[in-house]
Amino acid sequence: MSDSFRGLEELEIRNLGVIESSRVEFAPGLNVLTGETGAGKTMVLTALSLIMGGKSDADRVRTGTDRLMVSGHFAIEADLAAELDAEGVDCDDRTLLISRTITQDGKSRISLGGAPSTNARVSELAQSLIEVHAQNSSQRLMKQGYIRSALDKYGATNDALVEYQAILDRYQTLTSRITKLKNDEAGREKEIALLKEFSTAFRAVDPRAEDLVDIEVELTRLESVDELEQAVSTSLNYLDNDEVVLSSILNSALKSLHAASGKDKKLEEISGKLSDDVFALTESISALARYLVGLDADPAKLDYLQNRKAAINSLIKKFGIGSDREAAFLEIIERGRTVDERIKDLVGGAARIEELEKEKREARVALVQAAQLLSSARIEAAKRLSTEITAELASLSMPHARIVCDVVPRDCEAESSFQEFGIDEISLLFASHEGSDLLALNKAASGGELSRVMLAIEVVLATSFPVPTYIFDEVDAGVGGKAAMEVGQRLAQLAKFAQVIVVTHLAQVAVWADRHLVVSKNESGIVGISDVRALEAEERKVEIARMLSGQESSKSAQEHAQELLELVGAGRSAK
Fold first, then answer.
1. Number of Cα atoms under 13 Å in the Cβ half of residue 52
2. CA gyration radius for the chain?
């Protein structure tokens, strides 16, 4: 595949449902999976769900076997490969292997690049690799979180959102500090005394997060100077002394070999390797000698580090929280960064409260401005998004349908209006035909219309922000004829920007495939290693005929299939 390709390259499945063993290779563009009912097409989606950290289910393990195994090879971007490499995940040639096993007793294991991982980490990673639209996935269209995220992605409002969230955090922090000061008035003097004691002790030690490890490492070295000196001296005595200089002996042997190595290539190779080894040995001897010269007992530094270790231990013992020494130490450092601010709050009393109240009023003004700026950006983006989705619906045989992304800001006078993602109520409104009122999408759209709305949104978003792979199951639910052809065409359009994998029972969708895969069962009802395969041109015509009429051998069905394939081919060539 191309070096620029991102997406799912290969899926391997063993002992999952009716699938005994299968390896499926996917390509860039539009990949279509077809096959008779019960042949295991949806098992491919089940396998992907498991790979991407989905819920494990021991009932999926094929009867008579002890475990199922699924694995996927993903071509990923260089930046993601570098991020995973930093985590210790092997991504050779920008290829990521994700594997999952589930046993009959329900035990599950998942791995990234061959190393054990967790479902949570893989699920997080999956969001940047795959977007799945399976049964009921269009229900996300009714969730504000999904609609808001799609709108912000489309409108590029992330900077405005980040600015709003930073001000909101500042505002909420001030509110919390003011409330705490008012509630803590009774024990104010006692807390001030305790905080000052902690502050004095903290500043005396001035600890750093890395102290626990660094001090132990350096103490171990300084306390072992005699032992280290003995070990290095003994080593050098073997390697380099007046009576036997090992490097000189090896160099003499090397000269002897060099004299004859030109007469035999194999000997020349051995001589070259020995030369490298002698050079490395000489460097190691020199390094040991330099290390020995630099080895210094430094009793003053040893005394300083021992005292600092004792001071840190005392700080942890007196002020640490919890039994975990390292966690307690890090919490002390974090507390030390804010202790002076807390003392200032308490010492200031009523005057400090008024000072913070003033800061809060200023923060609220900034918060309202940031919220309104974010809302304005969303409203503008929503108009454009609504227009583009409506145009896409017209291309999906819904010429009179309208979709409106409705953004309604809440009243900024109410404190409860300021939520994590802004002050906006965001929803999708839908009208299926001219003259009908715009209603909430779940009240106005049928199942087939919901599927097409979801597809229209993905096509619009993918032009700017595609994920590597889109997977659709039942995207053609409730459609047929011309509408099915349009669904196939829009899937092909989406496949120009990303890899698309579709499970379908409609010939009008399958004819648009760049790679057509068919899933079949053998006589025993099992899908084996050779039962998921890519179809050649003549085989595609037969499969399309089966999907059209249920009779792949029918001459008229095959002629209709050929006509559809030629129609799609001509349409693509014209573009």
1. 20
2. 34
CA atoms of 122 and 455, how far apart (whole Å)? 25
Give the integer Cα–Cα distance in Å for 187 and 182: 11
Q: Where are the domains of the chain?
A: 1-129+467-534, 537-575
Q: With bands split at pLDDT 50, 70 and 90, how would you rate the model's confidence at 136?
A: low
CB-based burial, 256-283: b 16+ in 10 Å, e otherwise? eeeeebeeeeeeeeebeebbeebeeebe
Mean pLDDT in residue range 399-404:
89
- pLDDT attached to residue 571: 65
Residue 451: is its pLDDT beyond 80? no
Rounded distance between C-alpha atoms, residue 303 and residue 152, angstroms? 59
Alpha-carbon distance of 71 to 238, in angstroms, equals: 53
Report the greatest alpha carbon distance in the chain. 106
Share of the chain above pLDDT 70, in %: 89
Average pLDDT of 181-206? Answer: 79
Q: Which CATH superfamily is domain 1-129+467-534 in?
A: P-loop containing nucleotide triphosphate hydrolases (3.40.50.300)
List, as one string, the DSSP characters of 326-353. HHHHHHHHHHHHHHHHHHHHHHHHHHHH
Instruction: Report, as an integer, the average pLDDT of 298-320.
Output: 85
* C-alpha separations of 435 from 402, 430, 431 in Å: 10, 12, 8
pLDDT tens digits for range 281-299: 778 878 887 877 777 777 8
| Whole-number average pLDDT of the chain | 83
Q: Which of 419, 424, 483, 420 shows the shortest CA–CA distance to 455?
A: 483
Handedness of CA 7, 117, 14, 504 (dihedral sign): negative
Model confidence at 528: pLDDT above 80: no
pLDDT tens for each residue of 421-440: 999 999 889 888 887 888 88
Nearest alpha carbon to residue 52 among 109, 129, 108, 105: 129
- pLDDT score of 262 more than 80: no
Write the secondary structure of 201-213 as one string of H (helix), E (strand) and C (coil): HHHHHCCCCCHHH
Whether 150 and 459 have beta carbons less than 8 Å apart is answered as: no
Q: Name which of 382, 416, 568 is nearest 492 in CA terms.
A: 568
Closest CA to 155 of 402, 470, 460, 498: 460
DSSP 152-192: HHHHT-HHHHHHHHHHHHHHHHHHHHHHHHHHTSTTHHHHH
143 vs 384: CA distance, rounded Å: 20
CB atoms closer than 10 angstroms to residue 111: 16
Instruction: Note whether 402 and 430 are within 8 A (CB).
Output: yes
What are 47-76's pLDDT values in tens digits?
888 888 888 888 888 888 889 999 999 998
DSSP assigned state of 7: E
Alpha carbon distance 562, 452 (integer Å): 26
Residue 429, classed as helix, strand or coil, is strand
